[in-house]
Amino acid sequence: MEKVNLDWASIGFNYRKTPQRYVANYRNGKWENGYLTTDETVVLHESAGILQYCQEVFEGLKAYTTQDGHIVAFRPDLNAERMIDSAKRLEMPPYSKEMFLQAVVAVVKANAAWVPPYGTGASLYLRPYMFASGPVIGVKPSDEYQFRVFGTPVGPYFKGGAKPLTLCVSDFDRAAPKGTGNVKAGLNYAMSLYPYVLAHQNGFDENIFLDSATRTYVEETGGANILFVTKDNELVTPKSDSILPSITRRSMLYIAEHYLGLKVTQRPVKLTEVEEFAECGLCGTAAVISPVGKVVDHGKEICFPSGMEKMGPITQKLYDTLTGIQQGLIEAPKGWIKII
Ligand code: PLP
Ligand code: COI
After folding, report:
1. What is the pLDDT, as a whole number, of residue 247?
2. Could you say which of 10, 239, 240, 280 would form a disulfide bridge with 292 (CB–CB 3.0 to 4.6 Å)?
């Protein structure tokens, strides 16, 4: 497969149009057959549910070229399952796992020239999403929906690649205890933009959100879950019903336990404990594993011993093992890699 001419190693995390995307419509109580199209625009009714009441859910996953030249996707079945959960929470008709996987495969195959070559560090980021396309004016679910998947080649999510990040503890809340923090809906991101811009203006890379009920426990950032490593090399991740169940985090916990022989614990993590950890990282499809060097809590600086120059040793091992599995260098647990 001839690849398009791009400087793959230097692309950032930006939208870049690829030739084909997938579209399917829900009308008259059922999902119609989907199809590929070159048209990247969406024409909407002025009163579409997405425009009026933000009825939308999405996913994010990546396709890679492995060392032996296959194009693969990482655990796309879990994205399909999570999108079903998200859709149910927003009163949208779930798009089945089979149809989801079929759409992802179709988009990757149709844009194979845009899947970055092995060894470039880049990948094809896939964005499945669905939204209410039918008109509503009273607050109620729409009768019509559209499901789409497009792909865009991406490099590192955070500028500077693997340089440790500085986070600030946000004064804003991301999710309420029985709210929508545990599903991947655009509305969770819309409300995070103000605190995100504020954090950037103040020189921080991202926000740490706390639990909104007590503001004492660490939840997650605007676009990734958080990992901590204790001084005894135990991996600890915050447990909460209002954070997104990250597929990267679930994979990380498995890798830490079964590949690296580490003790892993998921439990509520108090903000006051953070200064006791040896390493910290953010994990997600876009973030992969991005090291955190410093957390600032209202002027109080918490500097992790791993410093601001490089990843901590355990974070590095987790990163190497995860990316090794994704690129076909390390044997994957059964079912993690879908060859396309
Ligand atoms: N948390 C939030 C708020 C996210 O947007 C994401 C990204 O998908 C994650 C966590 C990480 O989830 P995953 O590892 O499934 O990409
Ligand atoms: C992802 O990691 O896929 C995300 O969705 C995070 C962010 C880009 C919204």
Report:
1. 98
2. 280
- Does the C-beta of 219 come closer than 6 Å to ligand 1? no
What CATH number is associated with residue 110?
3.30.470.10
Structural domain of residue 229, as residue ranges?
Answer: 165-325
Report how far residue 120's alpha carbon sits from residue 97's, in angstroms, rounded to the nearest whole number.
Answer: 30
Q: Of the residues 30, 97, 140, 184, which is catalytic?
A: 184
Domain assignment of residue 338, yes or no: no
Contact criterion met (CB below 8 Å) for 253 and 264: yes
Note whether 91 and 110 are same-domain residues: yes
What stretches in the chain show pLDDT beneath 50? none
Are residues 124 and 115 in contact, defined by beta-carbon separation less than 8 angstroms?
yes
pLDDT value for 103: 98
Confidence at residue 253, expressed as pLDDT on a 0 to 100 scale:
97
> What ligand 1 atom has the least distance to the C-alpha of 249?
14
What is the predicted pLDDT for the residue at 157?
86
- Is 180 touching ligand 1 by the criterion CB < 6 Å? no
Q: What tens digit of pLDDT does each residue of 114-172 get?
A: 999 999 999 999 999 999 999 999 999 999 999 999 999 999 888 766 799 999 999 99
**Does 331 map to a domain?**
no
Domains identified in the chain, total number:
2
Is there an atom of ligand 2 within 6 Å of 126 CB? Answer: no
Distances (CA, A) of 290 to 158, 223, 272, 302, 314: 8, 12, 22, 17, 12
Query: Is residue 287 domain-shared with residue 184, that is, in the same domain?
Result: yes
| Distance from the alpha carbon of residue 223 to the mean position of ligand 1, in angstroms | 5
